[in-house]
Amino acid sequence: MKLLLYLPQILLSIMAVFIIVRLFVSLFSMRPAGRPKAVLINRNNGKKLAISTYETSIGRGRSSDIQLASSLASRSHAVISRRKQGWFITDTESKTGTFVNGAQINEPTRLYHDDLISIGGVDYTFVAPHARRDDAESSSESTATATGGYIINLATNYEYPIKNGSISIGRGKENDIAIDDPTVSRKHASVIYTDEGWCVVDKDSRAGVGVNGYKVHGSQPIEDGDTIMINTHSFVFKEANAKRKRRGARG
Amino acid sequence: MAKSAEDKALKVKKEHRRHPINNFLMLAVITFFQCYCFAQLIVENWKEFSVNIEILIYAAVFIAVEWVYFIVMRTAGRRKNFEIEFIAFFLSGVGFAAIASAKPDGLLVQVAAFVIGIIGFIVLVWILGDSERAMKLRLPLGILAIVILAANIVLGTDINGARNWIVIGDAISLQPSEFVKIIFVFVGAATLEKLQTAKNLYVFIGFSAACVGILFILRDFGTAVIFFLTFLLIAFMRSGDLRTIGLALASAGLGGWLIMQFKDTVKNRFATWRHVWDEEMIDGKGFQQTRVLIGIASGGLFGLGLGKGNVRNVIFSSTDLIFGVVCEEMGIIIGLLVLASFVLFAIYAINNARTSRSAFYAIAATAAAGLLLFQCCINIFGVTDVIPFTGVTLPFLSRGGSSMISCWGLLAFIKAGDARTYLTTYGEIKKK
Amino acid sequence: MKSAANRIKIMWVFIALALAGTIFLVYSMVVDGGKWATSSKNQHLYINGTLIGAGNITDADGVVLCKTADGKRTFAEDGEIRRSLLHTVGDNYGFISSSVQNQYRTDLSGYNRIMGVWELCNFEQGSEVMLSVKSGACRTAYEALGGRKGAVCVYNYKTGAVLVSVSTPTYDPEDVPDDIDGNDEYEGVYINRVTSGLYPPGSTFKVVTAASAIDNVKDIKTKTFNCDGAYHTDYGEVKCMSVHGELSLKTALAKSCNSAFAEIANETGSNNLKKTAEDFGYNKAMKLGKLGVATSKFVSPGKDELELGWAGIGQSKTLVTPLLQMQIMGAIANDGVPVKPYIVQKVTTAAGFVSETAVTVPGSRAVSEETASDLQQMLRNNVENQYGNWHFNDGLKACGKSGTAEVESNETPHAWFAGYLQNEEYPYAFAVIVEHGGSGSEVALPVAAEVINSLTSD
Question: What is the CA C390 to chain-centroid distance, rounded?
Answer without folding.
Answer: 27
